[in-house]
């Protein structure tokens, strides 16, 4: 799904204006479309992504970062930020989303580090443990996203037909 | 269409996107093009957009000349801001030229314009082939016997494709540098595509892509790879496959790649069986007989991971087309909605392939 809330709303409005309205001759149907466009414009002004699931993802990331720091011990590794990262942070969704995206990049750096020659030479057992732990943890974080994912409508989207 | 990293750059002008989607403009440009190509006045009738594909835009039409001859043809246009823009028409043109007259059924190529002089983007014209496209996303309503027939032909044709000697054909020009491994080049192309700035960074995709690059097996033999060989990319009529379509991702590489892609459950009504009827072991047996290629379980596992990586890269390209390139198609906006499940499946596939 598009990550930008505003762009998603703009896209929906544009789809209705460009593709649906020109093919809708019925006065009532056109009224429904314009009402939907109005409601979408309202959403753009007043709504945003839910902060809760984003905060949950950041919490899972922070737990992973703390555990990697513990496992790595004295090994030299990419920097881990002060945890928890949400302490004192603004509660708005955009700020939490930025934290989540930043966390993904840090986890990526750590994953590359754990599987590179340097870490393996320093302590192969710990490096492997960290690599596997990080992969499991990232999959845990993806579970939070899965819980927010609607059932696939690929068939309907690709064919324009109601479900088979 | 190949990612831009492994395709010739076209001369597209993104500002012409809206023009390209206007059917009257497309039709006028097509008339000019055909008049020049065929050397006589051409009338176009029944011009209509054929499907709502995610990448190339397809139109069908009938041409008639003053001599009284008529032909039903297909036009395929690579839109300037489409899923895999900027497009090159050449891989598909080379495939249709090279495979004409072989046991791999393809539509006959009529003409093409790579430079985009008429429309501002590349396009090609080919013969219309009779048949229906099966829907891969949901369980088929066709009976099991029918699907077994088609699945058997589908694999037999893949075997024929992988038997072909591409040397001396146009497709040989898809080979990279002398020292470059074509199968590695295919992976690097998707990896470069994922590295382009977009909304989300997925650490497992980044790391797994590096693993795929570092662990790419040597192919049993280097073959033509369709690149999108799956249920839904062919025409069938009266229980016969009449044409293999959508050659935009054709490249040279490891034949395991096509087999693994065909087995992705998403393209088989969420079944692990090909077309919901052929068990994996049957598919491998049938394929080995048809191709003469000995399938390696390890390479197949590797390419099953690669298939998920490619699927993820395609979805991220769709989001990029919507968010960054402002391609106003809501199908692009929602295409990556299954990223979380794909990335998790990719991690499991990597574990199986390691």
How would you describe this structure to a colleague?
The complex is a heterodimer of chains A (164) and B (354). Chain A folds into two domains: 5-47; 51-147, no CATH class. In chain A, 71% of the residues lie in helices and 0% in strands. Chain A has seven helices and no strands. Chain A has helices at 5-20, 27-46, 51-72, 93-114, 117-122, 124-147, 154-159. Chain A is elongated. The relative contact order of chain A is 0.10. The mean pLDDT of chain A is 91. Chain B is of the alpha+beta class. Chain B has two domains: 4-127, Phosphorylase Kinase, domain 1 (2-Layer Sandwich), CATH 3.30.200.20; 144-353, Aminoglycoside 3'-phosphotransferase, Chain: A, domain 2. Chain B has eleven helices and nine strands. In chain B, the strands form three sheets. Chain B has a five-stranded antiparallel β-sheet with strand order 1-2-3-5-4, with helices on both faces. In chain B, α4 runs parallel beside α8 (280-291), α5 packs antiparallel against α6 and α9 (297-323) runs antiparallel to α11. Chain B starts with 16 loop residues before the first helix and ends with a helix. Residues 1-20 of chain B have low confidence and may be disordered.
């Amino acid at each position: 799904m598009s990550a930008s809330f505003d762009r998603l709303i703009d896209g929906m409005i544009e789809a209705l204006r460009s593709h649906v309205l020109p093919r809708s001759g019925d006065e009532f149907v056109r009224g429904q479309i314009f009402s939907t466009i109005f409601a979408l414009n309202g959403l753009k002004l007043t709504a945003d992504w839910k902060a809760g699931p984003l905060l949950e993802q950041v919490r899972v990331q922070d737990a992973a970062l703390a555990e990697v720091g513990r496992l790595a011990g004295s090994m030299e590794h990419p920097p881990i930020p002060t945890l928890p990262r949400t302490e004192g942070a603004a509660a708005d969704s955009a700020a939490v989303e930025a934290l989540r995206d930043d966390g993904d990049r840090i986890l990526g750096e750590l994953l590359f580090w754990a599987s590179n020659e340097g870490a393996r030479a320093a302590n192969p057992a710990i490096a492997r443990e960290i690599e596997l732990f990080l992969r499991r943890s990232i999959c845990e974080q993806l579970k939070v996203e899965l819980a927010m994912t609607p059932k696939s409508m690929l068939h309907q989207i690709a064919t324009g037909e109601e479900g088979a | 269409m190949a990612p831009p990293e492994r395709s010739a750059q076209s001369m597209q002008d993104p500002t012409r996107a809206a023009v390209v989607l206007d059917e009257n403009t497309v039709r006028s440009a097509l008339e000019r093009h055909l008049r020049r190509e065929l050397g006589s006045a051409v009338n176009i009738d029944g011009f209509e957009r054929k499907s709502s594909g995610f990448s190339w835009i397809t139109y069908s039409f009938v041409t008639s000349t003053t001599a009284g001859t008529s032909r039903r043809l297909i036009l395929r246009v690579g839109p300037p801001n489409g899923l895999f823009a900027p497009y090159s028409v050449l891989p598909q043109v080379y495939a249709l030229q090279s495979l004409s007259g072989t046991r791999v059924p393809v539509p006959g190529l009529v003409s093409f314009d790579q430079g985009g002089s008429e429309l501002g983007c590349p396009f090609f014209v080919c013969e219309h082939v009779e048949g229906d496209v099966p829907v891969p996303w949901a369980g088929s309503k066709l009976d099991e016997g029918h699907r077994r027939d088609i699945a058997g032909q589908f694999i037999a044709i893949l075997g024929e494709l992988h038997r072909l000697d591409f040397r001396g054909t146009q497709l040989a020009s898809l080979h990279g540098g002398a020292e470059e491994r074509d199968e590695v080049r295919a992976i690097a192309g998707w990896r470069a595509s994922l590295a382009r700035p977009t909304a989300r960074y997925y650490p497992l995709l980044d790391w797994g892509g590096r693993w795929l690059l570092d662990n790419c097996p040597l192919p049993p033999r280097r073959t033509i790879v369709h690149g999108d060989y799956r249920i839904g990319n062919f025409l069938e009529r009266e229980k016969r496959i009449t044409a293999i379509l959508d050659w935009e991702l054709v490249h040279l590489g490891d034949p395991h790649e096509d087999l693994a892609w065909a087995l992705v459950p998403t393209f088989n009504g969420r079944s692990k069986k090909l077309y919901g009827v052929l068990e994996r072991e049957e598919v491998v047996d049938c394929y080995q007989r048809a191709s003469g290629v000995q399938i390696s379980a390890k390479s197949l596992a590797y390419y099953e991971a690669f298939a998920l990586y490619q699927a993820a890269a395609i979805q991220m390209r769709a989001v990029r087309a919507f968010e960054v390139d402002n391609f106003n198609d809501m199908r692009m906006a929602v295409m990556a909605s299954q990223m979380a499940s794909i990335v998790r499946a990719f991690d499991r596939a990597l574990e199986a392939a390691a």
